[in-house]
Each structure stands twice: as structure tokens, then as C-alpha cells.
Amino acid sequence: MAGNESILKFNNVSFNHGPNRPILSEANFSVRRGAKVALMGQNGAGKSTIFKLITGELVPEEGSINRASRLSMATAEQVMRRDHLDWTVRDFFQNCFKETVYDIDPKIEAVLEVVNLQADFNRQLKDFSGGQQARLLLASALIQEPDLLLLDEPTNNLDQAGIEHLTQMLVAYKKNCIVISHDADFLNAFTEGVLYLDVFTKTVEQYVGNYFDVVREISVRVEKEKRKNAQMDKKIQENKDKANFFANKGGRMRLLAKRMREEAEDLEENKVDVRREDATIRSFKIPFQEGVVGELINISAYQIMDQGKVKSKTAKISLKKNQHLLLAGPNGIGKSTLLEQLAGGQSKGAKIAPGVKVGYYRQDFSNLDFDSTVYNSLLSVLLDHDEERLRAVAANFLITKDFIHSRIGDLSEGQKGLVAFAQLVLLKPGLLILDEPTNHINFRHLPIIAKALSEYAGAMILVSHVPEFVSQIRIDEVLEL
């Protein structure tokens, strides 16, 4: 159980990302010693920003943040930084410390065992799969043995075995932990409280219990607020009707009518602001490329990684319109590499029919131009400059006028994911290739995305380690790597 001592406290903290992007407004919350807490909220609300405020990387514009004396902190980020990809494993862990750690290899070996990963210490980070990189990011925080462990979407790219291993580790973790995740089942296995960043009020709501408890509590509160307002609305209308009636009587009745109106105004002011839920993307369809028929892709051979060695395999995969393939296998076997080769037409054992447009959703979004704006990124996949269609599709994915002209590189990972889906809708592909499309995406959006993928009329190849998501999608064939 968490102790009574507070190790972290936000006091009326306000912070803005630029003049028109408020993230926090007089936010208050505290974390008790030993507590394991989930930090939740809509994509782009500012959860990762809160982590940076906690560590001191960012400074509040108003208010204060109190940290326990000598509190050590370490963050496992969502994705490997691009400028770190050329580092070796040993370099990566050495850079976790401000001062050189001599004889660091035994420490690295011990922490990699904790995250269930075997790795050559001289291997470069770019040579690891997304799931393996996720384990390295987690290990980079654990090796510092912090008092407060900050995990940003730690289950992204992890296979089921990796998620189970991480869950067991966090259950046994003796110190404080704050986790950003959209995986409610994962969070409920070890957290005992929720910090909910409200995208509308820019405040942090603090709850005891797991996320499902919070959802129930919020639902009860919303219904209570609605009932209270409905009762007030009824009383307000009664007072207005009486005021109108008495006003027409003249004399002293006019004074009574005035009091009735004043009472109605007081009731109006006392109405409560009903808590609004996070916005959800609207239902959408990914249109199928017109005019393509017959076999869209044929896979006769592919390669996998087996204990560090490349092995060739044969296959008999032929995908036509309305056929969906799931690629399955553990982290590090080569699923993302295969998808990249297929999307780029570089796989020697695969052939995409001439003229077929490929829609490729990369788990690291590296096929997006990070220096381009959201608007230009969407425009780049349109054959015709249909401004009305572009903005309608953008709005479906919560791409509002507030950030449609933002740089892709300035967006949260979740917002990048929504931009990538909007691109697929505008592209109208004949072949859809998706690598972990649930990563970073708010779980409220996932049923809508699953429905769109299930109904996609073209050929589709999917990689996903989320069984609940896959179960909602029509899959015609599974290739187990």
C-alpha cells in the first residue's frame, strides 16, 4: 500500500505549448510514496508534457512542483530517439548516467534479463525490432534504479509474452511508478490510482482505484450533474412562466415578477458544468482503389531472424480484393522488416501487381515528413486538390484547425497515428500494410479503427500484438512467422 508521505505535488500548475496551446491550467495533484498510478487522457492532451514537468525538463509558467528530497527519477520514453539509433547497446546504457559507469556490462546484463531480452552489447539500436527497442527503453529506466519510474506507453510494440513479463515486473516493483498507457487491462493489473488529464478543463482529476472504477465513477457523476441541471431547468422555466404571468398583472405583481426573474438568473448561474468526455474519432471507411482486379500481391518467399541469423522460408500467399492476412510471431523475428520490404517493393519473394497503390502505416511513423505540416502531409496523398474533402477527413480524425498547420514532428505520437490514418483514407489504396496500428492510439478509437479495417475492400496485411483488437477484424489467413 502507498504511504501517506507525498513524494510529488503539483500546486496550481499552468503550462502552455505556445500562445494558443494550453496544456495545464491551475492543475493540482499529488503522488504518495509507494503508489503506482496511471496517467490517462486523450491523444495530444499533454500527458508526456506532464512527465517533462515532473522531471524538470520543462518548468511551469505558474504554480509550483514539489518533489521529495533527493528523489531520483527515470523515464522510459515511447519511442527510441532518432539521433540515438546509431548508438550501440553499451553506448545507450552508458548515456543513461551523467557520469561514466565503469564495468557497466554486468549491470546491462542484469537489467536485460529483467526485461527478457538477449542482445549483443556492440549491436546498434537501429538493428533491433520495435518490440526489442521497447524493452531497451524500459531497461534504460530500470538500470538507474529510480525512486520514481515514469513509463510512457511501455506496451507499444511488445508481444503478448513481453506484456505479461512487464506486468509481473511492475507488480513486484517496490518503488513509485507513473504509467501513461491506453491499455486499460494492462494498467488495471498493477495500478491503484488514476490521474486523468481532462483535455477540456486542462486540469488533472485524481481518482482512487483502477481505470474501470474511474469510468464508473465518472459516469455516475455525469448522470448526477445532468439530473441536477434538469431539475434546475424545470425550476427556471417555472419561474420565467410565473414572472411573465405576474408582469402582465401590473402594480405590485411586477415586483414579484422581478424577483422571479432574479431567482431564475441565480439558478442559471448555479447550474454545474457537466463533465465532458474525450472526443472520439468518427466512423470512417478506407476507400478501395478503383480499377484494380485479380491478384494484388503474391508472396512466395520471405526471410526471418532466428537467433541472430537470417533464414529463408517459402510461402504460398496470394491476396486479391477483400482478402486480409495477419502476420504473427514474437518480437525480433522480422515482421516489421518484412512489411517494410513489401511496402517498398524490395522483397525478392513478393510481387505487387503493377499500378496498385500501397497504403503503409509504419509503427514509427518514419514515412511521415516530420518537417512538413499536417495539412501538407494530407495534401501530398491527394491526386486532386480537394480542399473540402481534405478538411472533412481531417475533422473525422480530430485534426482541428488548432493543429492542422502544426509540424508533424511537434505532434504527440497518438496525433501522428491519427494523421497516418487520415492519409490512408485520402490515398484510396489497393493494398493496405499496417504495422502495429494500435500503438499510441487512445483505446476509445480502437473499435472504430477495427471496424474500418474489417470492412476494407482491398487486400490487407496486418501486424498487431493486441488480441482484442485483432479479434474485431475480419482475417482470412494467418502467416505464422
Tell me what the CATH architecture of the domain at 297-480 is. 3-Layer(aba) Sandwich
Estimated structural class: alpha/beta
**Helical coverage, percent range:** 25-40%
How many helices does DSSP assign? 14
**Any idea what the radius of gyration is?**
26 Å
Instruction: Using the coordinates shown, work out and report the CATH topology of the domain at 297-480.
Output: Rossmann fold
Mean pLDDT: 88
**What is the terminal-to-terminal distance?**
43 Å
| Poorly predicted sequence stretches spanning 5 or more consecutive residues | none
The count of β-strands is: 17
Estimate what percentage of residues fall within beta strands. Answer: 15-25%
- Principal-axis shape: globular
Query: Mind describing the biggest β-sheet?
Result: 6 strands, mixed
Strand order of the largest sheet: 5-6-7-3-8-9
Query: What is the CATH class name of the domain at 297-480?
Result: Alpha Beta
Please identify which CATH superfamily of the domain at 297-480 we are dealing with. Answer: P-loop containing nucleotide triphosphate hydrolases
Question: What can be said about this structure in brief?
Answer:
The chain is an alpha/beta fold and 481 residues long.
Provide structural commentary.
Keywords: ATP-binding, Coiled coil, Nucleotide-binding, Repeat. This is ABC transporter domain-containing protein. Residues 222-277 form a coiled coil. Residues 8-224 form the ABC transporter domain. It holds the Pfam family ABC_tran. The protein is α/β, with parallel strands linked by helices. Among the domains are: 6-72 and 146-214, P-loop containing nucleotide triphosphate hydrolases (Rossmann fold); 297-480, 3-Layer(aba) Sandwich (Rossmann fold). Helices cover 34% and strands 22% of the residues. It has helices spanning 47-55, 89-94, 105-114, 130-142, 160-172, 184-188, 211-247, 252-270, 335-343, 374-379, 387-396, 413-427, 446-454, 467-470, and strands at 6-16, 22-32, 36-41, 62-67, 73-76, 148-152, 176-180, 193-197, 204-208, 297-306, 309-319, 324-328, 350-352, 358-361, 431-435, 459-463, 477-480. The protein is globular and about 95 Å long. The mean pLDDT is 88.
